[in-house]
């Protein structure tokens, strides 16, 4: 089997190109292992080799982020590596952010497994630990000897597509990703043991600390809705018959935008609901129960609202993750704003 | 209330001339079972098929699973208020065919019925890959309204479950387990030095094909109440169909509630198990407030030191779970929650739809959004026609060769939130 090809990213300092005064150098590539790359290459134990090292000054990256990122991606693409390693950055803040940012882009845009390494208080850790695996290091490069073998081991696993173990086993920062496993005891038994400890005042560890939700504070009330263009957005799963966008009946990964410009009411012959979380009988007969086009048109004629948008936005709410829901909202809100929509009626089920 | 549960271990299932248990083998007369189901004229046709552990068999869409049981001594019959007269159950002696089930499947009612694989990598997620299943494949009459179909399928399952259970009436059980809970004052006095523990059991009652029945009463029409744990072992609680398959508490799981089972194991040792507070998960806020207030009131009234709370379903009922947690804590009890998680396919979002600071002790039953692979099976019991619209399925889930890619939540009882399984989630 041929060796796993690795591209390594480091800053000018670790490449031996001066210090802070040279942190403004633009990205360059060398077709060899450089600086910490030599130890990393050795730690791969012959299974992988660094075919190229991309070097960039942290100041340059920070000040030209988008351009630098694009240039670096082009450089990496050329070598079609099986793995991309960035750092270790230890507690160097700008370097950490650059490592995380480049690594995330490589994974997202080139589809190549990536790994980095940083100290827990490096701002890059918090910014990117959900997106990529970041090996936990100590504060300074004095920890290089310990960090490199962990980086190499996890990197090889990722490149080979092997199962990655939990953070405490592999040495990466906890990413906040919920992963299944089989416990030795069933949940009811663990629950009773936890309760006995809690009642005795002994220490216990919850299996899921309560999540934090971002509360969206409402905008100020619309002053005069008779002059405002209103749109309907629903999580009730109303779609044109046949569900052209194939939106899921639960755990939606997409939303749809559907034209209603020439209609006074949502006809049951043209619309349906694909929502898996409620009995659809009534809505199947009358889709206006969820997207109240009939009433909105009357209000439009009466001048209660200024105007109704030509379309509604729809997805399935049941089981849809907060992450997906947030993504949908950020995405279609741009269109709503661009189309001059001043208020939205959200209907749920 | 004292119940002797006689466990008759079933190690094989076969068709036979007579429905009976002999040397651990359950024989079922196919025609008898079909005739029972066909008593309901809403059903067009019925077939019976057998599924054994390790076979290359996929069952879908599964509606309910019932453990065959029979009341041998004591008042009432199995599933009171549903197929037996309303009469308090939970005392005397009951025989169970452990390792066998009666399972209803066939064309879909809603989106919410699930898959069981009897072998392969997906089998480990459901307890019913390890049981000998008598599958009742039901076809409704054309045009039958979904609620009527659901009811017909539900009643057929319970009737056949009780009929097959009769086969265990005169069989000597392999094991007899005695469960006893005394009237409140006596129970408190029995172990005065042990902490008094209750179980808050939340029944799915969102309505619109998300229902549970207590002595035949639709749970959304009841106010919280208190019950002896053994009542459940005789079928006082039965499942309605159509809750997201992964966390569906089947009738089997009501008969074999793991929290009750494990609380009895610690009863008299670490805890004094007082009983079950039964509540619901209605969708209206006023109902949620009323029910959780009453749960808190029961905790205070009974003087409970600790409670476990389980829910059925996810999303909307998370609110009930949190309200119950808050109010039970305020009433003076230490609280532990047992539930499953839905953090999205990437596992990165919040696992629950609601949270309160009091919920500092939670046991995970795994996350249901994980995508898993189902290889093709030699035999399908039921139909795969609905895979892509079932909860957990999506466009492209079913491949032409019969293999499936879907979220774990498409498997019956895979992340059941009453604590029956060993599956759990942890943070990577």
Q: Find the CATH superfamily of the largest domain in chain A.
A: Response regulator
* Protein chains sharing the most extensive interface: A-B, 55 and 80 residues
**SS-based structural class of chain B?**
alpha/beta
- Seen as an oligomer or otherwise, the chain set is heterodimer
From the structure above, extract its key features.
heterodimer, A: 349 residues, alpha/beta, Rossmann fold, 2 domains, six-stranded mixed beta sheet, 20% strand, globular, B: 428 residues, 32% strand
Would you give an account of this structure?
The complex is a heterodimer of chains A (about 350) and B (about 425). In chain A, strands 2-3-1-4-5-6 form a 6-stranded mixed β-sheet, sandwiched between helices. In chain A, strands 10-12-8-13 form a 4-stranded mixed β-sheet, covered by helices on one side. Chain A has 2 domains: about 170 residues, Rossmann fold (3-Layer(aba) Sandwich); about 120 residues, no CATH class. Chain A is α/β, with parallel strands linked by helices. Chain A is globular and about 75 Å long. In chain A, helix 1 crosses helix 6 and helix 3 crosses helix 4. In chain A, helix 4 links the parallel strand 4 and strand 5. Chain B is built from 8 helices and 26 strands. In chain B, helix 7 packs parallel to helix 8. Chain B has about 425 residues and is of the alpha/beta class. The N and C termini of chain B lie far apart (about 45 Å). The longest helix of chain B has 20 residues. In chain B, the strands form 7 sheets. A 6-stranded mixed β-sheet of chain B has the order 17-19-14-20-21-22, with helices on both faces. In chain B, strands 8-9-1-13 form a 4-stranded mixed β-sheet. A 4-stranded mixed β-sheet of chain B has the order 5-12-10-7. The mean pLDDT of chain B is about 95. Chain B has one domain. At the A-B interface, strand 7, helix 8 and helix 11 of A face helix 6, strand 20, strand 21, strand 22 and strand 26 of B.
């Amino acid at each position: 089997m041929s060796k796993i090809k690795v591209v390594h990213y480091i800053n000018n300092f670790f490449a031996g190109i001066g210090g802070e005064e040279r942190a403004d150098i633009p990205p360059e590539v060398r077709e060899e292992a450089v600086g910490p790359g030599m130890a990393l290459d050795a730690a791969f134990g012959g299974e992988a080799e660094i075919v190229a090292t991309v070097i960039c000054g942290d100041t340059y990256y920070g000040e030209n982020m988008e351009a630098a990122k694009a240039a670096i991606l082009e450089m990496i693409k050329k070598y079609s590596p099986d793995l991309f390693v960035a750092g270790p950055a230890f507690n160097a803040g700008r370097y950490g952010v650059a490592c995380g940012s480049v690594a995330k882009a490589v994974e997202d845009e080139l589809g190549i497994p990536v790994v980095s390494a940083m100290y827990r208080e490096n701002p890059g850790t918090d910014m990117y630990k959900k997106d990529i695996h970041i090996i936990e290091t100590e504060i300074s490069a004095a920890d290089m000897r310990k960090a490199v073998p962990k980086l190499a081991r996890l990197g090889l696993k990722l490149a080979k597509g092997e199962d990655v173990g939990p953070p405490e086993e592999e040495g990466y920062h906890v990413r906040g990703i919920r992963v299944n496993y089989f416990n030795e005891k069933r949940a009811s038994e663990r629950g009773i043991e936890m309760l006995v400890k809690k009642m005795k005042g002994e220490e216990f560890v919850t299996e899921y600390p309560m999540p934090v939700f971002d509360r969206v504070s409402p905008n100020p009330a619309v002053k005069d809705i008779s002059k405002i263009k209103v749109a309907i957005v629903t999580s009730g799963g109303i779609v044109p018959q046949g569900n052209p966008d194939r939106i899921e009946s639960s755990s939606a990964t997409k939303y749809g935008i559907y034209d209603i410009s020439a209609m006074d009411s949502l006809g049951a012959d043209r619309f349906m609901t694909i929502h898996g979380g409620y009995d659809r009988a009534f809505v199947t007969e009358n889709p206006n129960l969820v997207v109240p086009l009939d009433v909105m048109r009357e209000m439009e004629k009466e001048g209660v609202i200024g105007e109704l948008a030509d379309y509604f936005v729809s997805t399935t709410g049941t089981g849809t993750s907060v992450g997906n829901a947030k993504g949908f909202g950020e995405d279609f809100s741009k269109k709503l704003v661009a189309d001059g929509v001043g208020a939205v009626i959200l209907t749920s089920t | 209330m004292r119940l002797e549960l006689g466990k008759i271990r079933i190690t094989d299932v076969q068709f036979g001339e007579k429905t009976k248990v002999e040397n651990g083998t359950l024989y079922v007369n196919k025609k008898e079972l079909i005739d029972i189901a066909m008593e309901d004229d809403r059903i067009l046709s019925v077939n019976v098929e057998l599924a054994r552990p390790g076979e290359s068999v996929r069952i879908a869409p599964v509606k309910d699973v019932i453990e065959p049981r029979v009341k041998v001594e004591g008042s009432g019959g199995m599933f009171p208020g549903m197929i037996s007269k309303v009469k308090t159950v939970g005392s005397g002696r009951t025989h169970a065919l452990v390792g066998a089930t009666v399972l209803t499947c066939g064309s879909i009612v809603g989106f919410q019925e699930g898959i069981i694989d009897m072998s392969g990598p997906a089998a480990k997620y459901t307890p019913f890959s390890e049981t000998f299943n008598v599958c009742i494949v039901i076809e409704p009459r054309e045009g039958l309204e979904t609620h009527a179909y659901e009811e017909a399928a539900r009643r057929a399952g319970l009737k056949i479950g009780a009929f097959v259970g009769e086969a265990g009436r005169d069989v000597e059980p392999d094991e007899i387990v005695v469960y006893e809970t005394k009237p409140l004052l006596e129970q408190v006095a029995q172990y005065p030095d042990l902490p008094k523990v209750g179980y808050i059991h939340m029944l799915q009652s969102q309505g619109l094909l998300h229902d549970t029945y207590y002595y035949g009463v639709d749970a959304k029409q009841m106010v919280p109440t208190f019950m002896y744990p053994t009542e459940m072992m005789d079928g006082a609680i039965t499942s309605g169909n159509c809750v997201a398959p992964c966390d569906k508490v089947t009738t089997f799981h009501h008969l074999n509630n793991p929290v009750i089972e494990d609380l009895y194991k610690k009863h008299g040792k670490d805890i004094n198990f007082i009983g079950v507070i039964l509540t619901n998960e209605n969708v209206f806020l006023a109902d949620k407030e009323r029910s959780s207030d009453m749960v808190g009131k029961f905790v205070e009234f009974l003087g409970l030191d600790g409670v476990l709370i389980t829910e059925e379903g996810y999303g909307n009922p998370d609110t009930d779970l949190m309200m119950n947690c808050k109010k039970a804590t305020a009433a003076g009890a230490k609280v532990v929650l047992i539930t499953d998680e839905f953090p999205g396919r990437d596992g990165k979002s919040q696992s629950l739809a609601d949270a309160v600071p009091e919920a500092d002790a939670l046991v995970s039953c795994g996350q249901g959004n994980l995508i898993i692979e189902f290889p093709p099976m030699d035999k399908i019991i039921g139909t795969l026609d609905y895979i892509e619209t079932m909860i957990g399925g999506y466009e492209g889930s079913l491949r032409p060769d019969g293999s499936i890619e879907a979220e774990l939540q498409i498997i019956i009882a895979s992340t059941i939130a009453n604590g029956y399984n060993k599956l759990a989630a942890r943070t990577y």
